[in-house]
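[09:14] KT: can someone run the structure on this one? pasting the chain below
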Amino acid sequence: MLGYPFGWWITAGLFLLLIGSALMSRIVIRGTLKRIGTDDHAELRVRGLLGLIHYHWEMPIMKMNGLSVEVKEEKSKQNMGGDSEQVTKDKVDAHTVFQSIDWMNMLLKQTDSLLGWVKTTLGHVHLTEWRWRTAVGTGDAMWTAMATGMVWTIKTTGIGVLSQMIRLKTEPQISVEPVYASAHFSTEWHFTVKLRFGYMIFAGIYLLFKMRHMRGIFRGLVGWQRILLRA
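[09:31] RB: done, structure tokens below
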């Protein structure tokens, strides 16, 4: 085709069309969180570019062990570079929490207006699904009614805050069911958000320029790498 008249123009046009279609496509993030009694389950899926990008994170096991929480994580990736799977077991305790706080503080110092960047990026996220069902009971009718009202307040407040941060493209479905017969707690939460792939690329590039100008982009990248390796 390149030998024909305007062959190079046609090829370039098709290439630009392909790039434009990729940039306009959406990254879809789906999450699930369940807790029934003492059983917990969390799952996160990220898909994009017609399935060329596929990331799956799952937490099938979370157990209390004294003052710490033992967590089992399963991760899998499917992309043009190949497939990979990873299973890890972690322990979350007070030391881990304080270490995460220090890690976040270092990232904030390493980057100019990181919170502003996060707020701007979230403003381009579209929420297309939100289902959150909870059942709660204390064994006493009065306390169950109070607990139901408290959970309902937490949910509606959370939706109000969320609506100020991201774009709601659907009516959130929330429910709180009282269980008067016995002490009970269960919750099930599903959500789906979408973000244009092109804006993700733009946000990543813009983040590079938000790093400390006094250190330069390269040194900023090195600083981020050191912090993330310590996390």
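[09:33] KT: thanks! The chain has a mean pLDDT of 77.
[09:34] RB: yep, looked fine to me
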